[in-house]
Amino acid sequence: MAEFNISGRLTVGSLKKQFEEIFGLELRVYKGKQFADEKATLASISAKKVEDFECKGNIKVGNFEKRFEEATGLKVQVATLANTEGSSGQLVHNESTLAEASRHFRAN
After folding, report:
1. Residue 53 needs a FRET pair 20 to 30 A away by CA distance; which of 15, 23, 65, 84 works?
2. Burial class (CB in 10 A: 0-12, 13-18, 19+), 5
């Protein structure tokens, strides 16, 4: 099962790259209502102490987004990659697991 650790030391860019490599999906990270700076660490842009946690493929997208915000204080959204045929850049349904979405959108 695909998984990786998320910590406050990760830069936004590194997190997004790992997420794309593992799941073939885009992770949109926000600081307020704007996209977060890719060079910033999660800890440097969060208003709270960032808790380390594991990102696993069997978690539902909606639960992952909620857990991410609880652990980091930052909002995220999971979307298809910009070059995904038929669903370019669309948000992934919250009831899908990360692994299901990965399989579905990599197949297209």
Report:
1. 84
2. exposed
Q: Per-residue pLDDT tens for 48-66?
A: 999 999 999 999 999 999 9
Contact 29, 56 (CB under 8 A): no
Instruction: Report pTM.
Output: 0.91
99 DSSP assignment = H
Residue with tokens 């990360």: 98
Is residue 78 a contact partner of residue 104, using CB atoms and an 8 Å limit? no
- Structure-token pair, residue 99: 């692994």
Domains for the chain: give ranges and CATH numbers: 3-107 (3.10.20)
